[in-house]
Design goal:
This protein is an alpha/beta fold. Helices cover 51% and strands 15% of the residues. The chain contains twelve helices and seven strands. The radius of gyration is 21 Å and the shape is elongated.
């Protein structure tokens, strides 16, 4: 039995499983007189609507008569290029629903590839902050993720930020779960991490972000290519970043570019 502040993720293998579990999650909430919300980048799919109707849940279009609310995240790459903006806008939307009078909220987040433009660290931060919102507000939140579309890195993020995982109808307590404040504090220390770089490493980072190759950086700084490669490896180690894309995103987030 789910209770307020529960935050779980459902790892599903196909659309049928996704919609069946989503329908059960919403139906139970609606019958329990909780306010239900579906968060996605698109309208509730017909497959889910049909399953809800099969359970006697009829969606009407008259404000107070709605069985559930929808929060649509539109054009995230154009409107919200930072994880903080996405989470802030979602938090405001959930607060508006909570103000309508009922004391608890059941939130279903149906993920497509909404946040592909965020770095791995930003996606981890986003998940942690959603967990924090769930802990602070009278929410029950379930996030759905397609197993065949998530990377190993993202799976680790899920296990770190969701205390409860549902997979193949079995409920697990995540062995990797961290409190949201632990993750958020680490992310907020990004400027401090930058300050651990030497002056030379900071200069190399600027040139990497500018798009120069190792040989181009070597020529610019009168260094050997091998020395540049060493600086680059040290930069990634100190910043806990493992690929060029996330390194560039780090620079852009922190005004280094």
């Amino acid at each position: 039995m789910l209770k307020e502040h529960d935050h779980l993720c459902h790892l599903y293998y196909n659309d049928t499983e996704c919609y069946e579990i989503a329908a059960k999650f919403l139906t139970h909430g609606i019958r329990s007189k909780a306010t239900c919300v579906v968060v996605s980048d698109r309208r509730v799919p017909q497959e889910l609507t049909s399953r809800l109707e099969g359970n006697g849940i009829l969606r009407t279009e008259k404000g107070s008569m709605r069985a559930y609310e929808e929060i649509i995240i539109k054009n995230p790459i154009k409107e919200n290029k930072r994880a903080s903006a996405i989470v802030s806008n979602l938090k405001l939307s959930l607060d508006k629903v909570l103000k309508k009078g009922r004391s608890s909220l059941r939130v279903l987040m149906m993920h497509s590839d909404l946040f592909y433009f965020l770095s791995n660290n930003e996606r981890l931060w986003k998940k942690a902050f959603l967990n924090k919102i769930c802990m602070e507000k009278p929410l029950i939140m379930m996030n759905q993720y397609p197993v065949n579309k998530i990377s190993s890195q993202d799976l680790i993020s899920i296990l770190k930020t969701h205390p409860t995982v549902v997979e193949n109808n079995v409920v697990y307590q995540s062995p990797m779960y961290l409190t949201p404040d632990t993750i958020i504090k680490d992310f907020d220390r990004e400027p401090d991490k930058y300050n651990t770089l030497s002056a030379k490493e900071q200069r190399v980072l600027v040139l990497i972000t500018s798009g120069l190759s190792n040989s181009g950086i070597a020529e610019e700084l009168s260094l050997s290519v091998k020395t540049v490669e060493t600086h680059r490896a040290n930069i990634m180690k100190k910043l806990s970043i493992h690929n060029l894309v996330d390194l560039v995103k780090f620079s852009m987030r922190n005004g280094i570019a």
